[in-house]
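Dear support,

I submitted the protein below through the web form. The confirmation email said the job was done, but the results page showed an empty box. After a refresh the structure appeared. I'm attaching both so you can tell me whether what I see now is the final result or a partial one.
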Amino acid sequence: MTYSKTATENLLAVNADEPELFLLEIYHPDQPARIYVCRDSVDFVGFGHTWKAFQFDFNFPNDQDREASVASISFVNIGGSPINDGMGNDFTLSGWIDAADGGRGVKVRVIQTFRSDPFIELDLTFDLESINVDQDKVTGQLRFNQSAFNNHAVARFFTPEWAPGVF
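What the results page shows now:
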């Protein structure tokens, strides 16, 4: 993996000059509206979008042996902070999830960058699952391509019923 000069300096520094900036693109493949937020106190303009400053917590996927990697995400839902979906509509996050088939099929793209040097350091896309919405928070689990777990590398198995001449 190649890092920018800014990222390399910040990774090697004991006290980094600037914090990393996490950007989230939240979308549903069947809906044109997308949500762009950044974990900061000031909006970020870059990569062709304005990323609205929004409070959220993101934990990277675990790396446990014999276990599917799972990340977690949590958004503040207090006061119904409106988020512009890029098409001129203001939604609360929970309202957008309701409009997106209750969150089924929602994807979350996580981008890591730096404000002073907008270069994509990390770009991961997850499936959002196990969504829980209450008055204070919207929480969920992020998994890598869940539909791939149902796909098999072998299209047909050689069994005595299918290929009796082999046995």
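Response: this is the final, complete result; the empty box was a page-load delay. Residues 54 and 81 are 9 Å apart (CA to CA).
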